[in-house]
């Protein structure tokens, strides 16, 4: 019976991890909706693709932070200053990935909205890993 306890604990940890990823995915989709709405609105206002991508990402970031600290990583205590800084640092990395891909792909002739759609999964997976295993590793 004692051998089953570590196996059950491992299985429970795997299930919890999957739900964390699912909650993060839902939070990201909601934030992405806000991001894309702002991005497309700014493109309609003749803002450059890179600037629109930056502004959209920044708006989505604020929304993502509010969702993440309440529903995704739910730390046992209030978010720390270090977590806030780590969240912003991971966002800067995601922003660099997003802006760089939008700029580069748009320069090759790809429509800015399609370039953003290419950038989304790359940025998403990179930032998720940083936040899960770094910023909120203790949550």
From TrEMBL:
Compartments where found: Membrane
Source organism per UniProt: Sphingobium vermicomposti
Sequence ranges assigned to domain GtrA/DPMS transmembrane in this UniProt record: 23-136
Phylogenetic classification of the source organism: Bacteria, Pseudomonadati, Pseudomonadota, Alphaproteobacteria, Sphingomonadales
InterPro entries: GtrA_DPMS_TM
Bilayer topology annotation: Multi-pass membrane protein
A cellular component term, taken from the record's GO annotations: membrane
Transmembrane region(s): 21-42, 54-73, 85-107, 113-130
This protein's name: Putative flippase GtrA
